Amino acid sequence: MHDKTRRAAQMRLRRHQRAQKVPGLKIVFSEIEFANRVLSIPFHEETRTDSLTFTLPQDWVLDTDLVALALTTLLGTKYSTVVFSDAISPETRGAVESVTQAEWFTGAARSPMSDSPQQRNDVALNFSGGFDSLAAQALLPRDAHLISLDFGGPFAREREFFKDFPTHTISTNFRELGFSLNTWSFMGVGSILLRDYLNLQTYSFGAILEASPWHFNAGMTSGNLRQAWFNQAGLTIFNPVIGLTEVGTAMIILSHRPELALRSLASVAGAGSLKHTRKLLLLHAAARHAPGPISLDPVNVEQPPLGVFGTNLANDFLSFYLYRILGPEYTKLLVGDIPADVLNRIRPLSLDFYEKINTNFYSGVPPSLTAHALHEAAVSQCVPYTYTDWQEFLEVKNILAQFHEFPA
Q1: Half-sphere exposure of 191 (CA within 13 A, CB side)
Q2: What is the pTM of this model?
Q3: Are 208 and 244 in contact (CB under 8 A)?
Q4: 210 Cβ partners below 8 Å, 6+ apart?
Q5: What is the largest CA-CA distance in the chain?
Q6: How open is the CA angle 72-78-82, to the nearest 5 degrees?
Q7: Share above pLDDT 90 across residues of the chain, in percent, rounded to a whole number
Q8: Cα–Cα distance list, 124 to 12, 121, 205, 225, 368 (Å)
Q9: Most buried residue, 41, 180, 276, 388, by most Cβ within 10 Å?
Q10: What is the mean pLDDT of residues 314-334?
Q11: How confident is the model at residue 356, as a pLDDT?
């Protein structure tokens, strides 16, 4: 990898990591209250004073232990000192200090309010209504809870789609206040806040294979994906589509909920954007596996490229499959021209694994969840990798390693 390309790849890899701690940075939370369905968490930093708000069910019960644990998904390891004026249990204080790597000053210690994990057994999906969370819903049990965050503003289009689902919707302002920049798990804050209300033991995201360079580690299993803030809240992870590519999630949508494909697409990206174009291309590529005729918007191949090869891991990864299935004129919209030496290396490959599932990610998952997910995936023709698929997966990773940094 050339030095310039390596530096760019390292910068992209760091974006997948948590925000770095700012020495001496302090945040104070005080006078937390829950009234009229709104959880208010006033806070003060050196340069601002404001209040985090979350709209929750009327009969939700305020538990400051859960509030403190939920805040860790928004704080990450950015702060050196956290003042939380309400009382929390010693166990929770130790947990939040461990997760945030910060010193916490809290109100008087109290006994935990919550029940034990053995008394909780439900599953929740953090649901945005996008392609991947829609596919994840199809692979989860029918009684899995859906939890959606309504950020308003530029994200209002998401609510217009997910409001038609039986979601537990939490309206919140934390993204507007910049608290989505400190960790990649802010979307799961609702799973912690609603843990006891929904009797949750397991939480899920619509994370897919190419969403992170860490997922390309051939030895990666579900156990490696545990995230401390959810662990400390007594929740276990099961991401049903993490072993699938976006090709696979498109296949699942067209098999299980084809009538929602274009509505879901419109909810997550504006027409003509790179994200919208990528997902539309994937629908066209996956349509050959659909159980019946699919009506899709046409793709304008005359528009200029929206991306450049070598700058985005997910786009580069998907471009190989799209080149094979749709052809170079479509792939060019996503990444421009793929280098000739790269094309020479991918031409001998079948790339069938893009349509299949890496079952390593189901290791350690309750058998009932695994069995259900694999059955629903197989209905959509997404079956486990073969030996040849693993060989090709590793070859594609080696090709991408010329342009992107992968963790050891």
Answers
A1: 33
A2: 0.90
A3: yes
A4: 245, 246, 313, 314, 317, 318
A5: 66
A6: 60
A7: 74
A8: 30, 10, 9, 17, 15
A9: 41
A10: 97
A11: 98
d(CA 328, CA 339): 12
pLDDT class of 224 with cuts at 50, 70, 90: low
Residue 379 CA to residue 396 CA, distance in Å, equals: 26
How far apart (Å, rounded) are the C-alpha atoms in residues 204 and 185?
11
Centre a 10 Å sphere on the Cβ of residue 126 and count the other Cβ atoms it contains: 24
Place of tokens 């490696």: 224
| Per-residue pLDDT at 67 exceeds 50 | yes
Helices 274-286 and 261-268 cross at an angle (nearest 10°) of 160
Give the chain as a 3 state SS string. CCHHHHHHHHHHHHHCCCCCCCCCCEEEECCCEEECCEEEEEEECCCCEEEEEEECCCCCCCCHHHHHHHHHHHHCCCCCEEEECCCCCHHHHHHHHHHHCCEEEECCCCCCCCCCHHHCCEEEEECCCCHHHHHHHHHCCCCCEEEEEECCHHHHHHHHHHCCCCEEEEEECCCCCCCCCCCCCHHHHHHHHCCCCCCEEEEECCCCHHHCHHHHCCCCCHHHHCCHHHHHCCCEECCCCCCCCHHHHHHHHHHHCHHHHHHHHHHHCCCCCHHHHHHHHHHHHHHHHCCCCCCCCCCCCCCCCCCCCCCCHHHHHHHHHHHHHCCHHHHHHHHCCCCHHHHHHHCCCCCHHHHCECHHHHCCCCHHHHHHHHHHHHHCCCCECCHHHHHHHHHHHHHHCCCCCCCC
End-to-end CA distance of the chain: 16
Residues 6+ apart with CB under 8 A from 319: 309, 331, 334, 335, 338
Which residues, 6+ apart, have CB-to-CB distance to 99 below 8 Å? 72, 228, 229, 232
Which residue has tokens 């991401």?
239
Fold of domain 21-106: Nucleotidyltransferase; domain 5 (3.30.420)
